[in-house]
Amino acid sequence: MFAPPAAESQGPSAPPAGMFDSMPGYEGTVAGGGGGFLPPPMPAFPVPQPEPGPEQPHWNIPSITEDTAREAFALFASSKCCYSSAPAKDGVITKMDAFNTYRYRLETFTELRSTEWSHEPYRGQPVDAFAQPPPGPWDILAKTPTFYVDDQQIMKVPYTSSMKPCHDCVGMGRKPCKDCAGAGNKVCWVCNGSGYRHGDDRCNHCSGRGRENCSHCQGQGAKQCATCQGKQQLLVYIKLTVKWTNNSDSYVVEQSSGLHAENLSDVSGKELFRDSQYLVYPVMGFPDTTVVNAAQRLVNEHQGKYSRTSRILQQRQTIELIPVTKVTYSWKGKLNNYFVYGNEFQVNADNYPATCCCTVM
Question: PANTHER family from the entry (predicted)?
């Protein structure tokens, strides 16, 4: 025989709407659901206007040497168990073509605030509701965030905390056990309540009683209320969530080397330009016009999108060069090629000319 499945435990009931007081400035606040997002107030002082970033009169585009290309190819071949080292060792480089691929990245660091009614078991915490009007959600001091690092802080809104009887257990601290309907015991699942298993053999599981103590409540018929944890009272308050987010978007200039674009997401490049201020000005003077156009578009999108729901604290824009070099080499009278890309000098050689057919058993 197998024991019957235990009854599923049900979560606490939702608190009634009348449980929450009407707080000045927070009349629309609801319970649960992640809270309502609150747009920041209009600044009391003029917002500083973005300034053009530092001029970059010389955009230095580095290229790799033959020795670097050869060493990267050798490391690549040695990392493959089925690749012969001969092409990397004996191949003669005949041509190297550099492809200058740029990545523009814009980061907008924002602060978002939301409120919702919340509660916790009352353990003697201060009760301050209506002692004075609560401060507005954007007037409450939060910690100083680290720029461009996602973070979150949760706090109680001052002067909103009150003590209420627990709605889930009606202030009793305990709830009837759902598994045994509050009886503290239930019909023995082995003998189905008869007290015997076969003929006159007494049921060993319930000692012939036909009933067994409920394992969920240890025979007490009630369990501690999970909502108030047996305290009978709840501290009810408005919870403020402050969320800092680094919103990032990138644009990579399309390159015609033949290397798949997805390879470039795994590597870093050489930083050519960096500008960080409250609001950045779209980059100007860069030799690739597609980067200039992308910067204009992304800056306008970010400043329009995030200023409506959040407070922009800082913006940063960077341009980096992701070097891509197509290397053509001769081995055994035939021309082949491979790519060396990124600061890490990663190699891609889809048509390596000396592989063996090895299998893993």
Answer: PROTEIN SSUH2 HOMOLOG (PTHR48465)
